[in-house]
Design the sequence.
């Protein structure tokens, strides 16, 4: 599976942006999907994910109510709609995908390992 992100841009505080992740090689329909970000000097963190085990979407606390993960299975794409952006949201955003299905002790999708990663797209929030 190859993942390619796009849509990163310079946005003013309070603005909105949608970034995309296009997949090729296999359908993502039965994959766990995650959006991660890494700011300069900080560790990578998960911000949103869709977990195949329970078909639910999860968000990191700081983005709840502002970010929305969505999927277009027909186009094999995943999106992250971001609103009310803050300077703290500035980072390289990457999408990730994993086809493993866990039974029993299921690792949270914001923290689990992912098999496939995109190269990332830069989102900068600044006036």
Sequence:
């Amino acid at each position: 599976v190859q993942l390619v992100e796009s849509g990163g841009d310079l946005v003013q505080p309070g603005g909105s942006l949608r970034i995309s992740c296009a997949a090729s090689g296999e359908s993502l329909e039965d994959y766990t999907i995650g959006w991660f970000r890494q700011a300069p000097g900080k560790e990578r963190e998960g911000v949103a994910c869709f977990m195949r085990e329970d078909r639910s979407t999860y968000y990191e606390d700081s983005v709840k109510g502002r970010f929305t993960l969505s999927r277009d299975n027909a186009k094999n794409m995943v999106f992250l709609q971001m609103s009310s952006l803050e300077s703290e949201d500035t980072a390289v955003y990457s999408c990730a995908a994993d086809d493993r299905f866990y039974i029993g002790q299921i690792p949270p999708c914001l923290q689990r390992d992912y098999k496939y990663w995109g190269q990332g797209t830069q989102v900068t929030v600044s006036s």
Observations:
- The two ends are 37 Å apart (CA to CA).
